[in-house]
Amino acid sequence: MSKAIGERHERIRTGRLHILAAAICLFALVLVGRLYQVQVVHGDEYAAQADRQYVHRSATLFDRGTILFSPKSGEPFPAATLLTGYTIALSPSQMDHPEDVFNALSGLVPLGDDALLKKIEAEKSYVEVAKGVDEETADRISNLHLSGVTESAERRRVYPGGPLAANTLGFVGFGEDGTTLSGRYGLEKYYDGVLSRQATGGSGNFFARIFANLGDDKASDSEGDIITTIEPTVQAELEKKIAGVMATWQSDISGGIIMDPSTGEVYALAVSPSFDPNEFQKETDASVYGNPLADRVYEMGSIVKPVAMAAGIDAGAVTPTTLYDDTGSVVVNGAKVSNFDGRARGVIPMQEVLSQSLNVGMAFVAQKLGNERLTEYFKKFGFGTETGVDLPGEARGLTKNLESPRDIEHVTAAFGQGIALTPIQTVRALSALGNGGFLPNPHLVREIRYEDGTVRKPAYDDTKRAISPQTSETITRMLVTVVDNALLGGTVKLPHYSIAAKTGTAQIPSPQGGYYKDRYLHSFFGYFPAYDPKFIVFLFTVYPKGAEYASHTLTQPFIDLAKFLINYYDVPPDR
Question: Considering the entire predicted model, what is its pTM?
Answer without folding.
Answer: 0.82
